[in-house]
Amino acid sequence: MRTRHLVSLVTGILIFSVLVPVCLSIWLAHRQAEDKFVDALDSYASRVLIRTDRVVAQAKQALTHLQTFHAPPCTPPHLREMRRVEFSWRYIQEVMYIDNLKPLCSSLEQSSNTAILPPPMRITADGYSAWLTSQNDLGIHRYMAVLGKGHYLVMVDPASLVDVVPFGEISMDAALVGSETHRIFARSNIVDPYILSVVKEQQDVTRVQYNGSMYVLKPVPELGFTVIAWASLKPLAESWHQQLIIWLPAGILLSLA
């Protein structure tokens, strides 16, 4: 009986000594693949934020320039200058001149028939008003991001805020969600409603795995929005298999040492 127990004990120890390094190598392979995947998503979200900052900075530069131009409103020289700004600043789609939130003219029309704008959705710390509106002088129902100061508004296509090509072979998407309104104002693809509820109700969460995708949430309190970047988990499985090829032999060799 003692011999049988001793054999069983030795067998158990041998199996344990073999399985532990192998299991550890499998866990390390999965962990390393996941870390690389999340790092790539986080890097993409940071690049989206850089792009957003660049577009907003250009809109502010255009508004600053317009404040220095002096001519009677909606006269040919004034209209020509607004059109020049629209043409010269890459991300600007339209320039509008307003008085008490009533558009008077724009770089598209000498006389604007657009309705009075609602109060701004947000006023930035440096005094710029921001809207998300479909009002324009062409009558096209298309939402635009609007930044304004003084008598001028500049309209920006929201898609330009997230128009970032991801590095590598992983397909990624991004969206910008207002911190107060929890409304999406720019996106490259449809965002799952559950993720919006996470942004609204769990503000301390920075990473979510849901419905076959990984989401990285990057709040930007100073600008009043959250960057959401996401990608399918299928590439993660492929990357995990590649890491497993590296780590599994190492675990087996370690167990035999």
Can you walk through the features of this model?
The protein has 257 residues and is of the alpha+beta class. The chain has a domain at 55-157: Beta-Lactamase, CATH 3.30.450. Helix content is 43%, strand content 24%. Helix 1 packs antiparallel against helix 4 (234-256). It is elongated.
Element-by-element helix/strand order? HHEEEEEEEEHEEEH
Described by strand count, sense and barrel closure, the largest sheet is:
6 strands, antiparallel
Category by helix and strand content? alpha+beta
What would the CATH topology of one domain be? Answer: Beta-Lactamase
Low-confidence runs: none
The tally of strands reads 11
> Roughly what is the average pLDDT, rounded to an integer?
80
Protein name: EAL domain-containing protein
InterPro entries: CSS-motif_dom (IPR024744)
Pfam families: CSS-motif
Keywords: Membrane, Transmembrane, Transmembrane helix
List the helices and strands and how they pair.
Elements: H1 2-67, H2 76-88, E1 92-99, E2 102-106, E3 122-123, E4 129-133, E5 144-149, E6 152-156, E7 172-178, E8 184-187, H3 193-201, E9 207-210, E10 213-220, E11 225-232, H4 234-256
Antiparallel strand pairs: 1-2, 1-6, 3-4, 4-5, 5-6, 7-8, 7-11, 9-10, 10-11
Helix pairs in contact: 1-4
